[in-house]
Amino acid sequence: AQRVTQPEKLLSVFKGAPVELKCNYSYSGSPELFWYVQYSRQRLQLLLRHISRESIKGFTADLNKGETSFHLKKPFAQEEDSAMYYCALSGLGTKTSGSRLTFGEGTQLTVNP
Amino acid sequence: GAVVSQHPSRVICKSGTSVKIECRSLDFQATTMFWYRQFPKQSLMLMATSNEGSKATYEQGVEKDKFLINHASLTLSTLTVTSAHPEDSSFYICSARTAPYDEQYFGPGTRLTVT
């Protein structure tokens, strides 16, 4: 079974402060991890995926298989980063689970001026 | 970039009636579309996976006779909520992708209210 846990429903930081959104997962196979973002009144969109190892809008996330975590980090938060962030998991290399996304509960990030 | 649309964006229907929601990929061919359901302040829950030209695969606990999914073309999938009840009121979101392990592109969602 696939499971994604985001322990913080709400996270509030000040502009310029570092931010870390936590994500832990459980999956017996080889996972692919994603972060999706949903800005106010907009659709869900992909922020980054661990396979591409990109930094998008200053955000990075490292897959830690030992700790089964994929925390999202940004060294200096901006007000425009305020949004709902979802961590998601998909299984790699399997016919049935390879395309299914399992989402965490989401973390509402608020960056205060 | 790839765009997915949903229609309608909001619908209100009476209990016992059926309602159809459309999901379209506007500028790409979607071999697979996914339907999710999202309750207020909760996460997205996958309801079913729809492959073009074949029957949808439903997640455990999702009634296939209640949530009818049709994926007749590479750009259109429909979700029909049959004999809707107030507990079916929710936000329904579709996503689409072109190939396995490609990025999923999400629609804006459809707010269904059953009175």
Account of the protein in words:
Chain A has 113 residues and is an all-beta fold. In chain A, 0% of the residues lie in helices and 43% in strands. Chain A contains no helices and eleven strands. Chain A has strands at residues 3-5, 10-14, 19-21, 24-26, 31-38, 45-49, 60-61, 72-74, 83-91, 102-103, 107-112. In chain A, strands 2, 5, 6, 9, 10 and 11 form a six-stranded mixed β-sheet that branches. A three-stranded antiparallel β-sheet of chain A has the order 3-8-7, with no helix packed on it. The model of chain A is unreliable at 94-98 (pLDDT under 50). By secondary structure, chain B is mainly beta. Helices cover 0% and strands 52% of the residues of chain B. Chain B contains no helices and eleven strands. Chain B has strands at 4-7, 10-13, 19-25, 32-38, 44-51, 57-58, 67-73, 76-81, 90-97, 105-106, 110-114. In chain B, the strands form two sheets. In chain B, strands 2, 4, 5, 6, 9, 10 and 11 form a seven-stranded mixed β-sheet that branches. A four-stranded antiparallel β-sheet of chain B has the order 1-3-8-7, with no helix packed on it. Chain B is globular, with a radius of gyration of 13 Å. Chain B starts with a strand and ends with a strand. The model of chain B has no long low-confidence stretch (mean pLDDT 92). Classes of the chains: A mainly beta (113), B mainly beta (115). The interface between A and B is medium-sized, with 19 and 20 residues.
